[in-house]
Amino acid sequence: MLKVRNLDVAYGMLPVLRRVSLHVNPGEIVAIIGANGAGKTTLLRSIAGLVAARGGEIAFKGSDIRGTRTDAIVALGCSLVPEGRQVFASMPVRENLLLGGYVQYRRRGRDARGEIDRVYGLFPVLRERERQLAGTLSGGEQQMLAIGRALMARPDLLMLDEPSMGLAPLVVKDIFAIVERVSAQGTTVLLVEQNARGALRIARRGYVLETGRVVLSGSAEELLANRDVQRAYLGSEAEPRA
Amino acid sequence: MAWQPDSERMDREELEQLQLERLEATLSRVYRSVPFYRKRFDETGFDPDDLRSLADLRRLPFTTKRDFRENHPYGLFAVPLRDVVRVHASSGTTGLATAVGYTRNDLKTWADLVARVLVAGGVGKEDVVHVAFDYGLFTGAFGFHHGAERIGASVIPVSSANARRQIQIIQDYRSTALVTTPSHALVLADAMIEAGVLRNALSLRYGLFGAEPWSESMREELEEKLGVKATDNYGLSEVMGPGVSGECLERRGLHIAEDHFLVEVIDPETLEPVPEGQVGELVLTTLTREALPVIRYRTRDLTSVVRGDCPCGRTLTRMSRVKGRTDDLLIVKGARVFPSEIEAVLLEVEGTAPHYQIVLERKGGEDLATVLVETPEGAVAGPSRADLQAAIQRRLASELGVSVSVELVDARTLQRSEGKARRVLDRRPS
């Protein structure tokens, strides 16, 4: 579904991504793990068209999308849940969601109500807080709102930038469970995370980014069993899951 | 039937994307973690970040056996020794055996790749796999052991025992798949005949023979004598061990595990890639190895790439049977001769046993090659022996394009091998 080849991204003179290549097959959850500053956010933003690449290819569903505008990329079926949630704090939950469906509604005249029901199905708490201003929600609820908003566009590929960041451990568990549920419903997922263990537990495959380069890739089991990954990102000599 | 059909029948475009990703990650890792490679890349002026395609691989320097020797034991390892859960050594037929290492993930991959070879060769979980390689530092035994366990077969770690004992075990334990070198398989076949054991009394069905070059004629000989479907397989310790490639039952070349190894075939003189289909030296680059990633290893094995689709459905590129090593290649009176070519002729001739040796000497400034061939027990002596000798000499001369003398010797005079056979005795001063 997504194929990235030799992506080079720089901020001015500073290279941030160096010949990054990866792919995501339909139905997969693919995790990108790495430390702060490794380039993970830049990677998702480049794919989403928010940051221009210096070189390389990005193909989504077979078409080249490098240089394509973000709204066109969303219309093609790729949505981004940005780092830090970035909900529209002064608007109610419902309006946030409706805005998420904007492209679908405007271009195809689709009624957003069915979509909102689906999102409420995934996040019942959002239905309860429908009229509440998004800025007054808890961190976890805001994350759910951000994901729900992205899902309103009916994406084939959902990209999430550090959904667990800044959330309490119990809430983090919920968020990963939600990502799994979204995947089970047929959406392909590209998940960027600093919480490597959480991400690899739900992913099928992963890539490890270090200073802008992919240094390792493999199945989630392989990455969990890789000692360098354990030392650097899992915090202990963890045993791989059975 | 394939062990990992998703990988073995992968779409070529998907495979190339996977290879590119894995190569780039491997280069980043070796540059970071292996001082030897960092120095080499810096010396050749190649920044691994500049690699943008599989074809760019050509710009990277080679790794040779000498590099392994000079960095023996652990100098080429990319991980600390405490992450290495297994250490093996190369067979060292040409000099010092060098150490190779595996992480837990490496072992798992190795088992899966050998499993692929076993399944391609017809072996399944109902089989009783008789591993006759010597268990120890050499990778052949453990490689096949874990691969066979992986597919759930019943594995017998026979190791190297004498031929009579091996036959006894095959009979008693009802081995169905024999894993060994072709020359050793021949020794077993002869021991069988000597012991009066009939082929049909054995439960053997498959023979997976490798670790040395062998001819089609030898295959026919072994299939006939042992009653097995014999397939070739290839590997070398420096990049992993057995499991790098193996024949499927179509037997039209050995399918290479290209999702784990990048294959190149080069001219050993010019070091440039040879045109498709031509014979050259096999060069391998590991794509997933953790403990000991290797970039462009010169295997010194001569082969060619076989193009086209295989009826088995595997999309992985095939290589031809290894013709010999670059150092096996004999230059006799200026002509290039492989021992396996001589083997092919000898096996076709009636009246000889398939045990031979090539002795090279220099007399009066000229190369002299003598092929010693055994005659079977109770062979006729006298003038017909001389005729046979002359006939073989003529055949060899016409096939090889150079004349060699032939000497018929009695049965069992030539040294037998338990592992790889030493076919050539080069007594020429170097």
**Secondary structure category of chain A:** alpha/beta
Order of neighbouring strands in the sheet with most strands of chain B: 4-3-5-6-7-8-9-14-13
What's the average pLDDT of chain B?
90
Molecular shape of chain B: globular
Total of helices of chain B = 11
CATH superfamily of chain A: P-loop containing nucleotide triphosphate hydrolases
Residue fraction in strands of chain A? 25-35%
Query: Biggest interface and which pair forms it?
Result: A-B, 21 and 23 residues
Q: Uncertain runs of chain B with pLDDT below 50, 5 residues or more? A: none
Written overview of the protein:
The complex is a heterodimer of chains A (242) and B (430). With 242 residues, chain A is α/β, with parallel strands linked by helices. Chain A has helices at 40-47, 70-76, 93-100, 102-108, 113-122, 124-128, 139-151, 169-184, 196-202, 220-225, 227-234; strands spanning 2-11, 14-24, 29-34, 55-60, 63-64, 78-81, 157-161, 188-193, 205-210, 213-219. Chain A has a single domain, classed as P-loop containing nucleotide triphosphate hydrolases (Rossmann fold). Helix content of chain A is 39%, strand content 26%. Chain A has a 6-stranded mixed beta sheet, with helices on both faces. A 4-stranded antiparallel beta sheet of chain A has the order 2-1-4-5, with helices on one face. In chain A, α3 runs parallel beside α7. Helix content of chain B is 31%, strand content 23%. In chain B, the strands form 5 sheets. In chain B, strands 4-3-5-6-7-8-9-14-13 form a 9-stranded mixed beta sheet. Chain B has a 4-stranded antiparallel beta sheet with strand order 10-11-12-15. In chain B, α9 crosses α10. The mean pLDDT of chain B is 90. Chain A binds chain B through residues 3, 5-6, 18-19, 21-23, 207, 210, 213-218, 222, 225-228, and chain B through 14, 17-18, 20-22, 24-25, 28-29, 32, 49, 51-52, 79-80, 83, 103-105, 108, 288, 290.
